[in-house]
Amino acid sequence: MNAIVLIALRRPLTFVVMSILIILFGAMAVLKTPTDIFPDIRIPVVAVVWNYTGLAPQDMSGRVVYYYERALTATVANIEHIESQSLYGAGIVKIFFQPGTDIDAAQSQVTAISQTVLKQMPAGITPPAVLVYSASSVPVLDLQVSSSNMTSAQLWDMAANLIRPQLVAVPGVSIPNPYGGTPLNVEIDLDQSKLLAQGLTAADVGAALSRQNVVLPAGDQKIGGLDFTVQTNSTPIEVPTFNSMPIKTVNGATVYLRDVAYVHRGAPPQINAVLVKGKQSVLLQIFKSGDASTLSVVAGIKKALPGVIRTLPAGVKITPLNDASGFVRDSVLEVVQEMMTAALLTGMIVLLFLGSWRSTLIVATSIPLAILCSILVLHYTGQTINVMTLGGLALAVGILVDDATVMIENIDSHLESGAELEEGIITAANQIVVPTLVATLCICIVWLPLFQLSGMSGYLFQPLAEAIIAAMLASFVLSRTLVPTMAAWLLRGQVKSHAHGHEHDANAGFFTRFQRRFERGFSQFRDRYRQVLTVAVVNRKRFVMAFIAFAVASMGLLTFLGRDFFPGIKSGEIDMHMRAPIGTRLEDASKIAVLVNGEIRKLLPGQVTDLVDNCGLPAAPINLAYTSDGTIGPQDCDITISLKNEHSPVDDYRLELRRELPKLFPGTAFSFLPGDITAKILNFGLPAPIDVQISGREQGANMAYAQRLVARIRKIPGAADVNIQQAFNEPTIKVDADRSLASGMNLSEANIANNALATLSGSGQTAPTYWLDTTTGVSHLVKAESRCSSHVPSRPLA
Predict the structure, then answer these.
(1) CB–CB of 248/200 below 8 Å?
(2) pLDDT digits over 177-228, tens only?
(3) Where are the beta strands (DSSP E) in 277-316?
(4) What is the pTM of this model?
(5) Distance between terminal CA atoms of the chain?
C-alpha cells in the first residue's frame, strides 16, 4: 500500500488526472443512468391473457385457465407459483418463476405451450397474448384524449391507431389499449323480427359474412405488353356495400343484409367508461418498462406530444393527468439535498476539529469523488439512481471522510513533531495503512448480509449495499492516492504552532481564536467525560446492570411502534375503488361515480384538483395484465383523487372518506388502492398490501369460508377495507334448452348456443371478418349482433 503513496508523491499529476477522469465519467454516468423511485425489481414473471367474448367467469376458469395451468406445470421449467384471475370474457394467468430464471427462455416456453393447447380449448378461441410482467412496470402518466365533436368510438380508434403508435417510439414506454370509449367497428345491427320473417338466424348472417367478405389475392395477368395486377371485389371497399351482400336466395328471391340489419360505422355496447370532471373521455395510461427511467419516459412523452397533436383532427385535446415524474423528481432531489447537507455538516465538523481550511479541503474533496466512483459502479452494474442507492450514499457520507481524516490528522501530527513534509506523509501512511484497511473492510462486511436477501427485499436493499461498499472502497483508495498528493501541495511551507499546529495567517485571526476557544471547550468536555468514565469503571457492576435494565426496558417500546415493510409516503394522490351493487349497469355505475365525486369535493373542501373515474372492464383484456385493482364487472369504478398539496394528510383524508361515503351511498362498497408509485410497486400490482387467497376444490365451500374469515379479520384493530374481491351473486339469465324438443324441430344445442353467441356477443369471436379502411390503412372488425337500439348511432361526447 505504501508503494501507492510513493507513486502519488513521485507522480502527482497521474492522480490529478485520475480525479478529473472520475469527475468526467461520473458526471456522464449521472446523466446516463436511469433515475427512478426504486431499483428495478427483476422478479421473473410472465403474464398470459386469454380472451373469449361472452364466456362466463366460471367457464373461463374451468375450461380455459384451469386446463392451461395444468399444461404449464407439465412443460414449463422453474415455475415458482401461478396466479390467475377469471373474469367475464377474459382470463389472466401470471406465472412466477424461480429467482435467476432466464425470462426470455421462460417466455418462449410459455408461448409454445400456449399455441399447443388451443386444440383443447373452446372452439373459436384465439391464441393468448404473452408478455413479460414486472413490478416496476407501473403507470407513470395518464393522457386524457377528448373532443367535443367526436364519438367515444372515434376517440378510442384514434387513440389506439394514431396516437399510441407515435408515442411508443419513446424509449422505455409501454402503452396498453385505451380506457374509456369502445373500439370502432363495422357494426351490423340485427333486427330479430326481420330475421324471423325471413327464416334466418344470427348464425346465418355470420356464415354469410364469412363467405361474402374474404381476403384472397387474385394475382396478375399478362395481356399484350403489359402485366396487370388483378383484384377482385371479395371484400367491400365502402361500408354501404355490406348492405347489398346477399344472405340467402329462396325461389329466385334474394335476401340482402339490408333486409334484416342496419350496417354502419359504430361500436359495440360500451363496457368501460372514463369520466374526467364528470365528462366522458378516453384515457391512455403510460407505463414504463422495468429498466427505464420514470423521468426520461415522462419527459419523452411530453416532448413528443406537440408533434402528435399536429397530426390530429381539429378540436382534439390531449391533457396530461396524474404525472408521477414530479413525485419521483421531488423524492430524489430531497435525498440529494439531505446528502449535500450531510456533506456540508461533515466538512464543518472536520474544519472545526482540524483547524485548517487546507486540511479540510483535502478531506472534503474525497466525498464527491467517492460518491461519483460509487455511481460509476452502479451504472456499469446495471443499477439505477434511486432513493435506495442515494439513501445509501447519504448514509455513507459521514463515513467517507474517515480514511482521509485519519490520514491528514496523522500527517499533521508528524509535521508538528518537526518531520519534513514528504517524510511525514510516508511515515503517517505507513502507520495507519493496516488500521484504516481493517476499519474500511469491517464497515463493508456489515452490508454483505444484504446480498443474501431474496425476492423484493433483495432487489430493494442490494443496490443500497452496493452503493455504500463501492463508496467506502473508493474512499480508502483515494486516501492512499489523492490525499497524499494534495497534502504534498497544499501543506508545503505551512508553519505550525508547537502546541496545536494552528496556521499563523493574518487573514485567519478570527477563525484561529474561535478554533482555540473550541479546543479549550472540547478539552473541558473530554476531562468531564474521563471523570464519568472513571466512575463507571469503578462501579462497573452497577453500571452494567443498569445499562442492561435500561436496554431491556426499552424493548417495551416495540409494543407501541407499528411495523411495516416500507414507510408510508404522501404523494398528493388517493386511489379509491367503488363497487356499486353487483350487476349494476355501466351507465348507472358511472352516474353513481359522478355523485360520489361531488361528495368527495364536499368532504375535502378546497383540497381536490382532479377526479378521474374509470368504470367497468377495459375493452381490451390485455390491459388487465398490467394492473389488478379488483374490478370484476360494470359495477366497479376506480376513482383517482388528485390533491392540491402533495404533503396533504392522505391518511386522514382516507379515514374521512371511509367513514362518510358508505353512509351517503348505502349498498355501495368503498376501498382504497395503493395511491403512490412506491406502494404500487411494493404491492406488485395487487389492490391491497395483504392478499389472502382461499384454495379448495369446491367454490361454494371456499366462499363460505372466506366470508367467515373476513368477519374475523374485520375485528382486528387497524384492519380496513376488508372485502372479498369475487362475487357469486351476479344476476344471470339461464337459457335451458329442451334437447328433445329442439331435435324434433331439426335443431341442436350447437344451433342454439351459436345463435345466442352471435346475437348477444356478436360474430367477432368465432367467425371474425375484417374491413380495411383504405383512407387510414386500419382494419376494423365486422361484427353482427342484436341491440335494443340498433338504429340509434353513438352520440358525440359532451
Answers:
(1) yes
(2) 899 888 888 888 888 889 888 888 888 888 888 888 888 888 889 998 899 9
(3) 279-288
(4) 0.80
(5) 76
